[in-house]
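Most newcomers find our protein records easier to grasp once they have seen one. There is nothing in a record beyond a sequence line and a structure line. Getting from the letters to the tokens is the skill we practise here. An example says more than a description, so a record of this kind follows:
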Amino acid sequence: MATFIANRLFQAVLVMLAVALIAFAMFRYVGDPVAAMVGQDTTTEQRLKLRQDLGLDDPFLVQYARFVGKAAQGDFGISYRHRRPVSELLAERLPATLELSLVSAVMALALGIPMGIYTALRRRGIVSKAFMAVSLAGISLPTFLIGILLILVFSVQLRWLPSFGRGDVVNIGGWTTGFLTRSGWAALILPAITLALFQMTLIMRLVRAEMLEVLRADFIKFARARGLPERLINFRHALKNTLVPVITITGLQLGSIIAFAIITETVFQWPGMGLLFIQAISMVDIPVMAAYLLLIAFVFVLINLVVDLLYLVVDPRLRVQTR
């Protein structure tokens, strides 16, 4: 087990170094940050001095090594736009993004898995067909369109829920949360549904497809021939063997909830890291963009490590191979 975890951690470090190199190299050529920071009256000497102060005239490898070294210590530099440490900006926006992602993930799992199981066991029922129709709409419609439609119905016409912002928040030891206020929950409903709908339908369809495949397996037929109860066959034998591929896709989808919350945060003006990243692109704020991609890559690497460990719990064959 220790060797398995050590190998995964070594691979994670290599992935993070590669992501840091790609992000730093890609954002190096998206534009001139000095031009976005200064005005038209700035002289050439002032521009050159600013480039030297920011270290933009150093060789690429020197800049990359300096970036990786500081990033390993949690220092992502100074934002060109806000003139503040990037780590502080991310720490301010992180609670909003995690709050939205957590509610969306719980919603997607709590609804997607039971709906997938139900549609697999009751394939010809009216409720199953309704679930499949909803899942088709959830997969087909783009996220920004779903968000706009929800705003149009529940904010503009019915005026039940706010269309933007995070509502009132409570600061607990430097961590801001809207879970303790009524307006915070009201502002969270629409963006959480928008972000969770695609993931929920994908999980539902995956669970349904895997469940149907397992139910056609020979060991399920043998269990029925032995006279085992149908509930025991479905939820102990079939569902357990369905979990391995479901854990893989679900883990990646939970990471993508955080990574692709950019669209939802932009539509609802949710003050999270995704909105900060969009604003950084428009202002060519390279430290913020690179730090955001590194943080998202770290989330995916961490989720993959957790998924690999869950494999050992779910599949006994992997435990034998690991030993």
User: Anything to note?
Assistant: The mean pLDDT is 81. The longest strand covers residues 170-172. Strands lie at 170-172, 175-177.
